[in-house]
Amino acid sequence: MINVVDLFFTLPLIGIVAYYLFGPSERAASRVVRWIGIVFALGYLGGMTYIHQRATAAIARDMQQSQTAYTSIFVTPTFLQPFLHYGVVHLAA
User: What is the DSSP string of the chain?
Assistant: First the structure.
């Protein structure tokens, strides 16, 4: 899960795209910048998915350890701090 406004993802990606569009037209430099952008995007999105799964698993583990019945868990990144997540747990009635 990624926020709609995620400066850690958007600003570097804008920089890479701007360099690719307005930078030198050398093929080797453009190819390197393109691969940096692809690796950055895939690594960042993969890392955010990993952090999201870890946060969900930690909340589920804590709920099981406290023997609290729940129906669902909603986990999302905090606003402008994508590495911190918070969760909302719906308790069973």
Answer: ---SS-HHHHHHHHHHHHHHHHS---HHHHHHHHHHHHHHHHHHHHHHHHHHHHHHHHHHHHHHHTT--EEEEEEEEETTEEEEEEEEEEE--
Burial class (CB in 10 A: 0-12, 13-18, 19+), 21: exposed
Q: What is the pLDDT of residue 32?
A: 83
Share of the chain above pLDDT 90, in %: 38
Structure tokens at 13: 């990606």
Q: Is the pLDDT of residue 59 over 80?
A: yes
pTM of the model: 0.75
Q: Where are the domains of the chain?
A: 7-91
d(CA 70, CA 61): 12
